[in-house]
Amino acid sequence: MNFRTIIEPFRIKSVEAVKFTRREEREARLREAGYNVFRLHAEDVLIDLLTDSGTGAMSAAQWGALMQGDESYAGSRSFYRFQDVVRDLTGFRHIIPTHQGRAAERILFHTILHAGQVVPNNNHFDTTRANIEVEDAEALDLVIPEGRVPSAIHPFKGNVDLEALERLLAERGDRVPLVMVTVTNNSGGGQPVSLENVRGVRALCDRFRKPLFLDACRFAENAYFVKVREPGQGHRAPKAIAQEMFGLADGCTMSAKKDGLANIGGFLAMNDDTWAEACRNLLILTEGFPTYGGLAGYDLEAIARGLEEVVEEPYLRYRIRSTAYLGEKLLAAGVPIIQPPGGHAIYLDARALLPHVPPLQYPGIALANALYVEAGVRGVEIGTVMFGLQPDGTEVPGAMDLVRLAIPRRVYTQSHVDYVAEAVIAVAGMREQLRGYRIVQAPRVLRHFTAHFEPLP
Ligand SMILES: Cc1ncc(COP(=O)(O)O)c(C=O)c1O
Asked: Is the CB of 343 under 6 A from ligand 1?
């Protein structure tokens, strides 16, 4: 018999209580936090959808693997286990552990980038962009036009615009040291990239002799989307699809806090011997010896086991389905979201929901703050605050104003998700009462993490 209900493919062995607060308490906590949900104490949040990064639940097998950690400074057994698993998955020659994804980005870009160069990507994630711009280089987003329209339906909205990439490489190719593709495309809504599109990028990279790097944080979720959406891929195991995608690239940056199913960690991997040697030299300066890269031996064990679990089909089926479940509930209630639902998150279209709040008054902040005050749910603005500040200090509207509700892996149950849907629908119902914000103080780089806001009258 085939039952329709897709259940969580695990049972729960250990639980953590959540704290219930009153609305007045949440109002006070948010005011004290400068109206920036990043500055809240996590304890004061009921359901935390700020990020899916490092917030997942590890399996019993991962906790068990922790005890196998070899904490030797050099040549630890745990490193070799980690290296075997990453190499089996990616096929890359050099595997360089780092404490998280942005460390891999910083080491790669500081090693290979020069001022005035251009790095194309479908959409750069904020830390990727920042690590490129800090080298006085340009981070260029070349996602397909559908990827910029929240309501547009396309099975692979994360795809790279191959014509735009070809134009860039033809006109300014001498300034492009490498091409990147982010799978899935977080800043564009957690949208997947097709194998066919990566093959197209590879062909252009071959023609213009450029290396191709994946930002592989959510490679397994991307592989599952390929399996269920790309013609001719349905019979394949997600791992085989992921292996083929890595095989099209020359290297990757990876945050193991996502599809590594670990709470910390990442890696940089590549085939080029010269780049790898230079990257390892910088790694030693800032992260640690090349066989631990800022991680404990037990972290390497947890990641190795996590990378094996994340490509299991029952896990990926539940993962992608549970995100879509939230999206479908919101759509049925008329809440505008990026369509179709992404892999790790639902993105509320705050600009569409709050047309009376102009982008420079931050509709994403207005919506995220209301969700916290009304329901204790924490999401995050992905919009003008995150992307609107230009390198010259001026401010322009971001391409979209979204609130991302990221689903931690294996943490919340279906009733938690039902509560979130009810909360979002209730806040959408009071949309006319929501007001914009202004920034009171903010740093020049990655301002969304620490900025202080003030509600407009
Ligand atoms: C697509 C993408 N790239 C890079 C990163 C950076 O990884 P980390 O947070 O581990 O530094 C993230 C984190 O959210 C991401 O989503």
From this structure: no
d(CA 432, ligand 1 centre) in Å? 34
Residue among 410, 430, 288, 58 at smallest CA distance from 280: 288
| Distance from residue 232's CA to the centre of ligand 1 (Å) | 30
Say if ligand 1 is within 6 A of residue 260 CB.
Answer: no
Q: What is the pLDDT of residue 372?
A: 98
Q: Residue 149 has what pLDDT? A: 86
CA of 182, closest atom in ligand 1: 1
CA of 65 to the centre of ligand 1 (A): 24
Q: What is the pTM of this model?
A: 0.94
The CB of 121 under 6 Å from ligand 1? The reply is no
Closest CA to 222 of 205, 200, 245: 245
Q: Which atom of ligand 1 is nearest to the CA of 127?
A: 6
DSSP state of 271: S
CA distances from 398 to 11, 51, 173, 360, 389 (A): 41, 20, 27, 9, 9
Q: What angle do CA 162, 211, 281 make, to 5 degrees?
A: 145
Q: Flag whether pLDDT at 1 surpasses 80.
A: no
Find the 127 Cα to ligand 1 centroid distance in Å. 7
Task: Give how far Cα 80 sits from Cα of 35, 283, 288, 301, Å.
Answer: 45, 18, 16, 10
Distance CA 431, CA 450 (A): 26
- Measured between alpha carbons, how far is 181 from 249 in angstroms, rounded to an integer? 9
Establish whether residue 266 lines the binding site of ligand 1, counting it when its CB lies within 6 angstroms of any ligand atom. yes
Q: Is 215 in the pocket of ligand 1 (CB under 6 A)?
A: yes
Nearest CA to ligand 1 atom 15: 125
Would the pLDDT of 120 be above 80?
A: yes
Return the closest-CA partner of residue 359 out of 324, 389, 329: 389
Q: Per-residue confidence at 383, pLDDT binned at 50, 70, 90?
A: very high
Locus of tokens 């102009």: 358
* 290-294, Cβ contacts within 8 angstroms, sequence gap of 24 or more: 290/96, 290/97, 291/74, 291/75, 291/76, 291/79, 291/97, 292/73, 292/76, 292/79, 292/97, 293/96, 293/97, 293/98, 293/99, 293/103, 293/267, 294/97, 294/98, 294/99, 294/103
Give the confidence band of 445 by pLDDT, cuts at 50, 70, 90: confident
The pairing of strands 380-382 and 402-406 is antiparallel
Distance of CA 201 to the CA centre of its chain: 21
d(CA 170, CA 397) in angstroms, rounded, equals: 30
